[in-house]
UniProtKB/TrEMBL annotation:
<dbReference type="InterPro" id="IPR001360">
    <property type="entry name" value="Glyco_hydro_1"/>
</dbReference>
<protein>
    <submittedName>
        <fullName>Family 1 glycosylhydrolase</fullName>
    </submittedName>
</protein>
<dbReference type="GO" id="GO:0005975">
    <property type="term" value="P:carbohydrate metabolic process"/>
</dbReference>
<keyword id="KW-0378">Hydrolase</keyword>
<dbReference type="Pfam" id="PF00232">
    <property type="entry name" value="Glyco_hydro_1"/>
</dbReference>
<dbReference type="InterPro" id="IPR017853">
    <property type="entry name" value="GH"/>
</dbReference>
<dbReference type="GO" id="GO:0004553">
    <property type="term" value="F:hydrolase activity, hydrolyzing O-glycosyl compounds"/>
</dbReference>
Amino acid sequence: MAEKPGIFPTFFISGFECSTFVWKDQGRRNLTCETQHHLYAREDYQMLRSLGIAVAREGIPWPLVDKAGSYDFSCIDPFLAAMAEAQIMPIWDLCHYGYPDDLAPYTDEFTRRFADYCRAAAAYVTARLPGQHFFTPINEITFFSFAGGEWGWVAPFKNTKTDRFQLRLSLCQAAIAGVKAIREVIPEARMVHIDPLVQVVAPLDRPDQIPAAYHETYVDTFLAWDILAGKKHPELGGSPEILDIVGANNYSFGQMEYREHGPHAALEPHDDRIKPLCELLKLVWERYERPMIIGETSGMEGGRAAWLKDVIEESLAAVNLGIDLHGICLFPAVDMPDWHTGAWLHNGICDLHPEGENLKRILHQPYVQELRRWQKELNRVTELDTNPFSDPVELQDVIKAAKRLQTQPDQNWH
């Protein structure tokens, strides 16, 4: 029996880019198809199995399965079969920036339809995949509200701060209704609510923007989680049980210099205004005291291995501060295109190399080698055994490694 059992069967988690937004100048997109994950599901999940990863974030495309209230979930059958064969436990993303064409997110009908869809999705997957079930009802509510409410990148293509705030409230209301609907079907289902870790600073020559930057860092970043937890807008029905597990995403572009209009500018790697990841994780932990994972993280190009080293060292420093950290999600498992340009980002465990009409998966070996090193350092499995779900992660091993290594927070990005 584990001395301190974790929530998941492995500490390292992964996932697949599964956005289904309506993009500003391209119509409906499906990133699962753009990366050919739908064609390579079996290979993709066997790859995770070989790397000792038994948990993956996977999407159910709401706008594609919901036919005005009736449902066709057959598009996820290849994923269900591949996960069952590889013994991978999913965290189902039920709305990854996309919703049906006949809905508007500012309406009560949006909330009702989303709850009905969540109920149907939960029934579908639990009937076909036994075991514990995890869901992310609406992915990155805060970022979604920026992208669709203020920047006009994705539907509903709004472009004011007021629109952004209203969209966030609507998404939170739908997410809370979705959690309740899922638990009507699976009372023991766990929820992982994903949003970015953000730090915004004022330009050095604009001290007048310090209050706005502070508000975005210490108020705006937390509003969606606050609503889900019942800390803000309690009339929407949030509670600590609704928030459940906090998934904090960490990317270098999450630390930014404030801009009044449009997305903020990412800080350069050695900017002394950058805060250590450990410090950002501590802010989230002190606010909610809920189990946490790093919901997404990855470096780019040749910096992936160094990025992983930095994230794990920061995470262990956070564990030494008492943070209840249950996993780190290496996201994505396979490469993904830049939404704006279509260029491959080279941020996955696997790169994608075109061979005719196919996208061949090629492991980025330095990234894999760094993962292997940390699996051994933390006494984690490097390959799944015949029953990876038989025992949860022994988090005491992670705690012991954190105490032994005594890693220190570092503000610089690799």
